[in-house]
Design brief:
The protein is globular. With about 220 residues, it is an alpha+beta fold. The chain has a seven-stranded antiparallel beta sheet, sandwiched between helices. A two-stranded antiparallel sheet has the order 1-2. The protein has a domain of about 150 residues: Protein Transport Mog1p, Chain A (3-Layer(aba) Sandwich), CATH 3.40.1000. It is built from three helices and nine strands; from the N terminus they run E-E-H-E-E-E-H-E-E-E-E-H. The longest helix is centred in the last third of the chain and has 21 residues.
């Protein structure tokens, strides 16, 4: 009887979000001094205030990341990661308000699947757009996903190590000042082949749509 090959350590590649802070302060003071009969007179223009600095406030649609381990329906998880516990495992974060990630993985027979769902909150829509555009540029070769948040993108890649294939799909979505990132991959340790591109791509998009819906509903963990 052949023994079951040990699965590879498939680690989801997560790019930490760049949290950009923006605060603008303009302090206008300083009297225009002139002398007349030994007395000093301070002048100030009508539009300036020496006592109150001006600031620009940025409104944020999302102030905190939702609970990632409740972002994908149980039935969807069962189809994407057969044999995985529906509760998943949340990855420790230095600031759970700004970034939260949940992971599911399981080996059923010889088939291995891994799913990660991550929420990242930035300070503004502009910051989220900048980060989203940068990541799309870094992960070239994919294409847009229509109807996924304000902008959606997916890419699938195949890697081979010791003759074992692994196919991984990454879907990124921007929703106002939030980013949703899904990583979904799989391998077959009997055939050494990876699932086909269509299966991985559709699975990643399905999970991403569920996660975006959870974000928009304000799901909390």
């Amino acid at each position: 009887m052949r023994s079951l090959p040990l699965p590879l350590a498939l680690t989801a590649r997560l790019t930490p979000v760049a949290v950009l802070a923006c605060a603008g302060w303009a302090l206008t003071s300083g009297p225009d001094k002139s002398s007349a009969d030994g007395h000093r007179t301070a002048r100030q223009t009508p539009t300036q205030s020496a006592s109150a600095p001006s600031s620009t406030q940025v409104s944020k649609t999302y102030a905190a990341a939702p609970g990632p381990c409740t972002s994908v329906p149980t039935a969807t998880l069962a189809s994407l990661v057969p044999g995985a516990k529906a509760t998943g495992k949340e990855i420790p974060s230095t600031d759970v308000k700004l970034r939260r990630t949940c992971s599911w993985n399981a080996l059923k027979g010889y088939s291995y699947r891994w799913l990660d769902v991550s929420f990242e909150i930035t300070d503004s829509d502009q910051s989220a757009k900048k980060e989203y555009d940068q990541r799309v540029t870094e992960k070239g070769g994919g294409g847009p996903v229509p109807g996924l948040g304000d902008a959606g993108y997916s890419v699938v890649n195949l890697t081979t190590e010791d003759k074992q294939e692994t196919r991984e799909g990454v879907v990124m979505a921007r929703v106002s000042n939030a980013l949703v990132i899904v990583t979904y991959n799989g391998s077959d340790f009997d055939t050494k082949k990876a699932p086909d591109t269509d299966e991985i791509n559709k699975g990643a998009i399905q999970a991403a749509k569920a996660a975006v819906g959870a974000l928009q509903r304000g799901t909390s963990g």
